[in-house]
Give the backbone structure.
Amino acid sequence: MSERADAWLPLRGVRVLDFTWMIAGPLGTRLLANFGADVIKVESYNRVDRIRETGPHPDGPWSYNEDGSFNDVNLCKRSLLLNLNFPQGQAIARQLAAVSDVVMANFTGDRLDRWGLGFADLARVRPDIIVLNMPVFESQGERRRWGGIGTHINGLAGISSISGYEGDPPFGLGPLYPDFSGNPFHATAAILAALIERDRGAGAQFIEVSQYESTASLLGPALLTYAAGGGEPERRGNHSARACPHNVYPAAGEDRWIAIAVETDDEWTALCRAFDREVWRDDARFARLPERLRHEAALDELIAAETCRWTAPELAARLQAAGVPAAPVNQLDGVLADPWYRGEYFYEQQGPEGCVFTTHGEPIRPAGERQPVQRAPLLGEHTDAIVRQLLGIPASETDELYAGGVLG
Amino acid sequence: MNPPSGPLRGLRVLDACDALAVYATKLLVNLGAEVIRLEPPGGDPMRQYPPVIDGISTYFEHFNAGKRSVSLDLSNEEGVGWLERLVASCNAVVESGQAGELLSARVGRQRLCASRPGLVLISVTPFGLHGPQAAQRGGDLIAAAESGLLALNGRPDAPPYRPGGEQAAHMAGLLAANAALLGLFEQQRSGRGCHVEVPVNFAAALSTLQTANANFYTWHGRVPQRRGMGTAAYRSLCRARDGWVVLIALPGQWEKLVRLMAEHGAAGDLVDEAYQDAEHRVAQADRINALIEAFTRRFHKQELSALAQAAGVACTPVNGVADIAADPYLTQRGFFRDVEHPGWGRGVSYPAPPWHFAERELGTREPAACAGADNRAVWIEELGMDGATPAAHGGEAAP
């Protein structure tokens, strides 16, 4: 894509050997690739990234290359098919590490060590290598083989316990939230800081991001409150301890909602005016935040009786125009119908096998503009280029490696 | 204050974030940067955010531990001049808030960037700095709602809810920290600066990537909905004696789960070969779930998780905050760190940084500074400002 030539690519010249799969790892290396790193994604027919199979898939003949989620989290990367169960495969991986700045993996605990690709092995071939592993628990120790996916970690790390309503089972979140938040982006922050330190002459660095710890970190205030003697947080749905009214309210239509978040007394006054209910403003029960919080249920009921007469987008626009923070509770179709999201967030890409992918955007916007990206690679698209051009392995040898199933 | 350690030591960041992205500068503290929080005269309103325990906001304390603090009155020209001097000593400025209220909006972005050639400036706003919604207001709830994240949570017969703990703001903070690090990496190599924005609504939208992957709609017209317990075939939450566990037989784990249940005489007819067929299991989902839950109810959640993981089945407890605080595994890993807070008069366990750099301790063991605690050290001793004109920093006495 020609736009990439002029894009802000601060990581140009940085190479990442990427053994991560599913989402938590690949979404992190996607950020590095989007900003210029040469990310080499390693798979093999023996161990195809399972995210290629989870969907959505387009109608028509099934292909590894047309999974919506895979193509979303692997933008701008190169794909290498290399079977690490063969000693020759492990040797090629070490050759690649020798010309890489970063190696990243998210297998259960000690998988890399068992392939001879542990930190000590890699530091031998590249003395200033940065290796990051992101196990669910730990790389060594009793829980090194314990596993799980984002759904587990939502429960394990306490996200489920602080989301939703008192009395309900801990449904947690619909999205596998840890895969999109702390796990990928704590990892990339650590890598970027280590790269800065490496440029100042630091040697090899092993970094571990335990997905349990990384996700529990996102509950920071609740953990500190508990430690300071404040007890367990209540599950307060959409309510807030420092803003009121602060909730989702029914809008016209079936299962349509509008979010309203009044943080200041000025916004409260503006809300009363926007609903033509100046009488609320003069009601002593709602005078200031402490009073409003005390009478939250009554206030929510009064507001819900007003909101249900409007469609969510209409009312949100009216409230915002009056200076009240509000937004429709969008579902996917609503987000995709928004021209701002379509033009500035989502990317549309023609896949080489026929379908058009709509992929989620890069929220990091240099100079306030959308970062241009390239489509995800086809399975094994760059195997030849990587082993022949980057490693200089002659065709006579690569033919044999292909035939033996080490490559491709 | 101890000299900062960690990979970013020697890099100075000015922190002008509100709740939308204050997590970004906390992460930079954890990586060893010197972060100076800019507060208005009278102190940052975040210092009052609940919960307040013994006069200390745990919210403020968590996000600002280990930062320095200076106060400054930007309503007069003298204050803006002091700001320019401070920015000249910084590698990066990270700011967040409503678009019109950002630091760069109040003093002028050109002027801010001119103070320090090669400055990395990161701006986090609810809906971006440009575009049709730039002037609109919002915080965590509004971003979670607008981005499509909120609608995915909860049971179908109750209102959907936002993720607990202000996760849209955490997403924005995570991405803003990464943006700052990308900028700092380039600045340290080439001296070039940058201005990068992170809209909170776009950051929140990223977390819907799989559950509400855009192609569900563009290819199939499908709009993913909240589904509470999930469908029978994709249920993952099971009751234990003392709460709940998440138990999913991931690919390749079904037989291991059945073997484990059989060892406890709880597998019933699940040992039949017919159940090895995934489609048959989907058809029999209710029956299977009943058998699994009869099994899981016999155990405590921690005990069952250990048992299942040892058998190769992915199972974790649903932990409350108290469970996490008491988890011996986390203690052994150093997940908590005792910090002496003068206001609490005792050591309190603060969450440690979310990563382990081998054989190093990163991050801080300092509490948050008092408002303006570093006024004298920064304004007068370091920058040589005239201490006799306290109008600039709001008259707060330098200690």
Observations:
- Chain A touches chain B through 149 residues (CB under 8 Å).
- The domain at 246-331 of chain A is CATH 3.30.1540.10 (formyl-coa transferase, domain 3).
- The first helix of chain A runs from residue 24 to 34.
